[in-house]
Structure formats: structure tokens, C-alpha cells
Amino acid sequence: MSILSGLQTFSLGGAQAYFRTGTSPNLGRKTAVHDFVNSGSRYVEDLGNSPKIFNIEAEIVEQTWSAYQRKKKALEKVLNTAGIIKLVHPTYGKQNVVATVNSISENIVNELNCAKYSLTLLVADKNIFPTSKAGNKSFINRVFDRIFGENQTVLADSVNFYNNGIELFNDARDTIQDWTQNVNDVVSTINGTADEVAAFVNDINSFQQSLTTLMQEPSTLSQRMNQIYNNVSLITTNFGDLFNVALNLVGIGSNRTVKSGNSNRTEIINDNRNAIYNFNDVAATSLAYQVATNLTYNNQEDLDSVQNRLNAAFNSINPDTVDDTIYYDLQSLRNQIRLYLDTLRVNLAFIITQRVNSVPSTILAYSLYGDTSRAAEIITLNFVEDPAFVEGEINILSK
After folding, report:
1. What pLDDT, on a 0 to 100 scale, did the predictor assign at position 177?
2. Residues 196 and 305 in one domain
3. Same structural domain for residues 328 and 391?
């Protein structure tokens, strides 16, 4: 936990930092002043509202090196992002901004790692990214970010831990712990970057240790749960591994059983369980959709396999229990991914079957493609044990 945990935080593109000081945005109107020659008269032309400029002195301070590096990397990645960024300001709320040139000073000692930022953020109403182009990757990323934000808000608004006795609290705590353990179990199956894995494990442990306190403030709890999901994507640079992890997270949890009974307390318990696991399934499915745009597809069969797995994940979500706005955005994300993948499909080879007599893989590759280096492709597609003898019904790519 940061030593500045009592300070107010702000969010910029999902990255968080501590808000030290900030100047108020410009107030008033844009004007053009026209002075009349040889006269004391003046005409002031109104040019509309003055757009806001946020000047923020921010800090990232952490006692552990891995947590410090992770938060610093996340913020600086956002600051280097082109176009509109979502700012969640402590007093002005959500704003669309563009980051201009910003400065940083850094102080690293044994007990404390601190980075101080002077940020200048210009409010901008128009997004430079095209939103109408089918399958546009930047649009996909924005829908993904929107779903994650909505998912966090809906979870905070949906849960009720204290309204009806200790049984309610205990069941919710057990359900969240079940979710946490399952996330940890799935993520531990990948061989990620050492620092990021260590940071993720520390976050999970810290979350579990402070769960009772976090449950007293649902908005903070949902924020921490959302951060755990955001950190999943940082653990590995292997998109194939990340895609598998995201899909394996859909449907996790052993505490999804509907509690029987007609009492108000039982209804709230079931609502809490639904809220927690709906949050999980939406986050995991959204992550899988976004990662799908970064996968390498060698042929149309690879692409079809990914689409089938994504469809299964989407279809497992019950639209009757998920917030309508989130489900609509999830459908939008799904449709954009379909368009994106269909565009890729046009240039991908497909697998066809051909019978060959016994022949070395290099000679076969040259006869089929005029390229001996593609022998490895034939060996992989057909699980060839001896490259000197390829025979029978084999799979080859159409181009």
C-alpha cells in the first residue's frame, strides 16, 4: 500500500496518480478586442466559451520498486498516447483531454521511490480518431476502456453488504475471496515477466488482506477489483498466453450457486453473487476481445478458432443479469472485432488437403511454394516426425 494512501487520486486514461495541487481551469469567454481609432470606444467580440486547461502537479510514490515501476510505466504510456484521453478529475469529474508536453522529476532512494509530474492537459471536444470506420482498432480500444469503466461503476452500485445481517457480509466476502483465488490460479498458469508477476501477486495479497475494509466502501472495492484485471494484461507480452488466460477467466468461480429461499436477505445474497461474477465475465470477455486484435493469424483456420472461442465466451453471459448499457457496449465491441477479423481474413491462406508420395519436406516446400524455408510450416501443420519423409494425406496452406 502506498505511503500516501490518504491523498486524493486522479485517473488519466485508466492510470492513477496522487493529486498534489492543480490550478483551476480557465473561466469566462474567448474574446477579440476591437479598439476604435481616435476614440475611447471599444467593441469586444464574443468568440464562445474559453476551453479548459488543467495544470496538475501529480506524484507517484511507492515503497516497492515493482509497484513504482508499474504505475510510472502506466501513466507515461498514457501521456504518450495520441488523441483524446479520459481524465477523471477529483473536483471537475470526467473530461476529454489531450496531454501536451509534460515534465517529470524522479527521486529514488532505498526506502522511497517518487516521481513528480507537472501535467498540462487541454480539454478537447473532438476526437482525432475516426469512429465510423468499420473494425477500426482505435475505436475498439475506446469501447474496451468504456466497458471497463462502466463495469466498475455498475459493480459498486449493485452490491449490498451491510443491509441485512452478518450472513450477508460473510457470503459476499466469501464470494469475493473465491473470485480472487480463481483469478490468481488462472493467471499463475502463464510464465510472465518476473517483476510484473511479483507485482500482481503482491496486489492480490494486499487486496485479500484489506478486503474487510474495502467492502465498507463499494466504490473503492470495485476500483481495486478493476485494477486487478488491468494488471492481468501487464504480466506477459505473449498475446497468445494472454488470450488463453482471458478466456479461462470467463465463468470462473465455485460460489455461483443460487441460494434457495424467498427472504429479502437471500435475494440480496444472490444479487451480490451475480454482480461480482457478472463483473468478472464482462471484464474477461472484453479483455479477450481486445487481445484478439493483437494476435498473429497464420491462416483462416486460426482466425476461425479464435472467433469460435470468443463467441462461446460472449454467449455464456446472461443478458438478463448484466447491465443494459454494458451489454450494448459489449455487443458493439463484438461487432467491431468481427469486422476487424473479417478484414484480416481476406489476406489469410486457408488449409487444404493434398496427397503426396514420400518426399523430403524441403523439396515439397519448393514444389508447392518455390520457397524451401516453408518446409518448417509443412512439418508443423502435419506433425511430421522425420522431415526427410513426408507422405500421405497432408495439410498445406493455399498460398
Report:
1. 94
2. yes
3. no
Counting the structural domains of the chain, the total is 3
Give per-residue pLDDT as tens, 283-336.
999 999 999 988 988 888 889 899 999 999 999 998 888 898 899 889 888 888
Beta bridge partners of 356: 392
Range of the domain at 371: 351-397
CB burial string 359-388: b at 16+ within 10 A, e below: eebbebbeebbeeeebbebbbebeebeeee
CA distances from 73 to 76, 112, 144, 201, 369 (A): 5, 17, 20, 18, 44
pLDDT-based confidence at 40, cuts 50/70/90?
Answer: low
Q: How many CB atoms lie within 10 A of CB 315?
A: 8
CB atoms within 10 A of CB 246: 26
Whether residues 142 and 286 fall in one domain: yes
pLDDT at 221: 92
- pLDDT for 85 equals 80
The answer to whether 13 and 146 have CB atoms below 8 angstroms apart is no
> Residue 3 has what pLDDT?
46
Give CA–CA dist 225/240, Å, rounded: 24
pLDDT: is 242 or 163 the higher one?
Answer: 242
The pLDDT of residue 136: 62
Statement to judge: residues 330 and 181 lie in one domain: yes
Q: In whole angstroms, give the CA distance from residue 243 to residue 316.
A: 17
CA 349 vs CA 298, 301, 383, 386, 394: distances in Å? 7, 9, 19, 25, 16
What size, in residues, is the chain? 399
